[in-house]
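Notes from hallway chat w/ T.B., transcribed later so I don't forget. T.B. wanted the structure written out for a chain they're using in a teaching module, and asked if we could keep both sequence and structure tokens in one place. Agreed to drop them here.
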Amino acid sequence: MSSPDPQSSAGEPEQARERMEQAVARIESALTRIRKSADTIRPAPPSVSALVVRHEALRDEVAVNLRELDALIGTLEE
């Protein structure tokens, strides 16, 4: 029976660090896109129905983004 290869786990901390750095870079990129998008949002017309429609659209967009972030964080915890 052979002993475990000591080098097989030697790269794991480095790989984990690289994955974390890549995840942070993706999150920063997403935040940049969100900021750009927020800068280009035109004010909604003052009608109540238009505000309700816009609110629902933003709520859906945020929900999608939160699910994506949750999935990304979940992959980091594995």
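Follow-up for T.B.: Residues 12-77 form one domain. Might be a good example for the class.
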